[in-house]
Design goal:
Layout: H1 3-36, H2 46-56, H3 64-81, H4 97-116, H5 121-152, H6 157-162, H7 172-175, H8 177-190, H9 202-205, H10 215-240, H11 247-267, H12 273-298
Helix pairs in contact: 1-10, 1-11, 2-10, 3-4, 3-10, 4-5, 5-8, 5-12, 8-10, 8-12, 10-11
Length: 299
């Protein structure tokens, strides 16, 4: 097998791996939420069944813009997953954080384009809330990343993860605890869990962006969220938890991050959209700014 074919196989394998990990976390998250709320809940593999069923159902599309947007959303996040170091290795040869943040945004904008083209007002409201919420969580995340870049002199995620090797005492969760709290608050909004699940809001706007998706389009929506979970938990693991030397250790750390999020989701009520954005700016933003200032002036 030549180099090109081997690289293609690596990329395809990582794409399916990220989907599988995300779907597994989605199933386990539903199980965790159910147990906290004194319910039994669905089996942990229910998300896999849901996606398979979606791809066997009849699909309804409104126009080619909707088709292109959904493909762009999933493709953008899969491309992002290629830059997340897995067991200390990136299949792209490097993991520039600027590229990661850029590709993540392309995925979200693709979903916005696709669901807005459906013409359903509930979908438009949901995606407008999602884009507004991005202003709340992106700014704290970027400020904390800037603080890390000042400390380590690099914007490569792999370099930041490698700099934390040598033991738990070297992890950024201990070196930058204020920044970690800021990113954890932002992460709750990034994955759209309570109290920041405004864009889905099933009791208000019938699942928001997903309302017009059916069949394979709904299945691709599930896969997009699955890859999103893999990317965003992987980002936090590499930023704060020292990355991992093996893929199963990496998955375990990812699940710990997601498990914390689902515990909060199970006991919180949803904020209103303006409350959610204000809460992120006041708390996550303030903590991120404090971490940036401390890093810049106190080392």
């Amino acid at each position: 097998m030549n180099f090109g074919a081997w690289k293609f196989a690596e990329l395809v394998g990582l794409a399916f791996f990220s989907m599988a990990v995300g779907l597994l976390f989605m199933g386990l998250g539903r199980k965790v939420t159910a147990r906290i709320q004194s319910r039994y809940g669905p089996p942990f593999y229910q998300s896999f069944i849901d996606v398979i069923k979606c791809f066997t159902k009849r699909s309804i599309t409104h126009n080619y813009v909707m088709d292109l947007g959904i493909i762009m959303a999933l493709g953008g996040l899969i491309a992002t997953a290629f830059y997340i170091p897995l067991a200390g290795v990136s299949v792209m040869g490097g993991s520039p954080i600027v590229v990661i943040l850029y590709l993540m945004t392309i995925g979200y904008l693709g979903m916005a384009m696709g669901v807005s083209a459906s013409g359903n007002p509930n979908a438009t409201i949901g995606i407008s809330r999602a884009l507004a919420l991005m202003l709340g969580y992106k700014i704290p995340l970027v400020m904390v990343i800037m603080a890390m870049m000042l400390v380590y002199g690099s914007s490569d995620l792999g370099v930041l993860a490698a700099a934390q090797q040598g033991g738990v005492e070297n992890w950024n969760i201990l070196r930058m605890p204020i920044g970690f709290l800021a990113v954890e608050l932002a992460f709750q909004a990034m994955v759209g869990e309570k109290p920041y699940d405004h864009m889905i809001a099933p009791s208000e706007i019938a699942s928001g962006p997903m309302v017009e998706l059916s069949g394979k389009y709904l299945g691709m929506g599930f896969l997009m969220h699955a890859v999103q979970l893999y990317v965003e938990t992987g980002l936090i693991v590499n930023l704060f938890l020292g990355g991992a030397e093996t893929w199963y250790a990496f998955m375990a750390k990812q699940f710990v991050v997601y498990f914390t999020t689902m515990c909060v989701n199970a006991v919180m009520a949803r904020y209103r959209i303006e409350q959610g954005i204000r809460h992120l700016w006041i708390w996550a933003g303030s903590l991120a700014l404090i971490q940036l200032v401390l890093t810049r002036f106190a080392g």
